Amino acid sequence: xxxxxxxxxxxxxxxxxxxxxxxxxxxxxxxxxxxxxxxxxxxxxxxxxxxxxxxxxxxxxxxxxxxxxxxxxxxxxxxxxxxxxxxxxxxxxxxxxxxxxxxxxxxxxxxxxxxxxxxxxxxxxxxxxxxxxxxxxxxxxxxxxxxxxxxxxxxxxxxxxxxxxxxxxxxxxxxxxxxxxxxxxxxxxxxxxxxxxxxxxxxxxxxxxxxxxxxxxxxxxxxxxxxxxxxxxxxxxxxxxxxxxxxxxxxxxxxxxxxxxxxxxxxxxxxxxxxxxxxxxxxxxxxxxxxxxxxxxx
Amino acid sequence: xxxxxxxxxxxxxxxxxxxxxxxxxxxxxxxxxxxxxxxxxxxxxxxxxxxxxxxxxxxxxxxxxxxxxxxxxxxxxxxxxxxxxxxxxxxxxxxxxxxxxxxxxxxxxxxxxxxxxxxxxxxxxxxxxxxxxxxxxxxxxxxxxxxxxxxxxxxxxxxxxxxxxxxxxxxxxxxxxxxxxxxxxxxxxxxxxxxxxxxxxxxxxxxxxxxxxxxxxxxxxxxxxxxxxxxxxxxxxxxxxxx
Lengths: 298, 243
Known about the structure:
By secondary structure, chain A is an alpha+beta fold.
């Protein structure tokens, strides 16, 4: 039985190989169809990676009340440091010096009688926290008696996460739709194949070939189309990544980031190949079940 | 040298004495007139007979009823102990595997070699490769085509193509051979050769039913002739054994 399957699989491959151009065109159509969701997946994955790498530099500023003196401020910074992550205390004077040096409004400050800047504790939370966890933690900090105001610098990062969530789901939807497109493409190709081999099918039935025997070569045709389509999709995605890797690195360089594009993971590669294969078989099974029984010798 | 082996039914089933029998069989295509009516006859196991009649008399339909390609609309057709009227769809393939069918237009697959064509019924049954080679060569030997295994069917003459068709029909050693106008596309010399091949298989114990309108070719042969006219059997008396 296994041997018969192997023979059919190889015979079908040989038949497809003899008609290389046509086979390649159909496989390319399937490949492009599969490459789109696979490419989008890689894109989303990379964007997530970028946003998580920014998460490391995510920090909250705790503006202390003026009534809190420097000693108490430093002590609080240490306490928080044990619980939350890295903390840095910036005294009012340091804030003033920093502002003077960086803002260019230093002379304006001289007009003021008092130092208007508060002392700040900069808290860099431990990584690998969800945006919700960070949000909750920030609220707790805001309620400390010494703290006037707790502020997260990168609200937009949460928005990016929300957007990425939407995009991720859209990729799933697109993948589902294009999966149907692959099934239809393979199904239609196999339907033409069945039409072209009608005489052969009739002869097979005349000499007593069971349906399963007649069906098998067509199922393997779908199998090979799907597998080849998956392989082509994989190549397309990896080639596209290669093409944008250099500009992406340059862009990352401009942001002082060591970020590099990641391609399809091993699991995702298997999914592209296996998905193509399954869709190919599904497409042919669907067509074969509809058309093969209609051909009867008479 | 011809090596014709016994059909497999002789080895394990000696009870069924009728290769096939028709009991008051009628057939009409949907919406059409009756193509066959009140057909009753039987073919004994190991018998050879001819089915004659003008084209349109119903010869092909009668053979199709035997191979379960069409089903009777009246009466019963019993082949090798199976009532074709009650066969389920999925039982038909294995039922058909026990019948060797030979066609006027040969029905060979032209994208495959002679060997692959003859081997097809064995491939369907899942024979092992070396066993398959042996059987295919034996079948080709029986029709005098040994050595032409790798030829493409279209490079052969009509008579040779028909012999490939016969080899394919007998490679599984069926108990019953049905031929529908097997000599219709052949010249008289080739036609006689083909008939001789059928006779040899019959002598080895195979039941043979040949539909033909080549009356002159079969009249001097010692076999029963069933004559169809307008869908009815008109004569089925055995012709004298003169051969």
